[in-house]
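YM 10:42: Carbonyl reductase (NADPH) sequence, as discussed on the call
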Amino acid sequence: MNEPRFLNKNILITGAGTGMGRATALRLALEGAQLALVGRREEPLQQLVTEIEALGGNAVALSCDISQYKALTHCAEQIKNRMGHLDGVFANAGVLGEFQSLSDTHLEQFAQLISINLLGTFLTIKSCLPLLESGSIVINSSWTASAVMPGAGAYASTKSALLAMMKTLAVEQGANAIRVNAISPGIILTPMADDVLSPELENTLAEHTALKRNGTPEDVTGTVAWLLSEDSAFVTGQEIIIDGGYTIGGLRL
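YM 10:58: structure's back
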């Protein structure tokens, strides 16, 4: 029987308290990973640690605002002291912001999206690189980076920038045996999505998806696990869209 893919591997996940981050943490724990769980709110992180330990896994909760570099460097110091190094990073944390047209988006709203989605991801990776002797970084972008959803323009702008960052990092870090890739999830029913999607809109979006349903956080975890594992050892600089065929769904009315 093969050993778990992440046995003796240390993985950091941002935005780990809910949604795709939480689901991925549980998936990786079942495959043997030791996890550093980063998020703004400590309570859901601690609940997740309890669940992972009940599964026989090992995890530490690190409450942190990823837009604050000093806070991230402190997290990195804690990880170094506890784990010694990292083998992978899932830079997952992000916010959707207000669902409105670009013309109605205020400067402060756009700045917050840049601060968390773009700058926060950059700072996460920058603080973690010294702990990565080799391994894999996965950035959570969005299907809106290459397709249009009116109302999500500011969010999409930050997510598009992440793809440029990902490709540049892949080239720059390749010689260090560090792979960098991105996932672009489609309509995934997370707590963040629930805040802006009405049941009627959810049904409409599902109808425009080739698989005739919206995604769940668990639909994302397999791809993230693959990209973080040695199963994808020759894959870097790539974007994988996880959308059930939404972006090839044809005419939208």
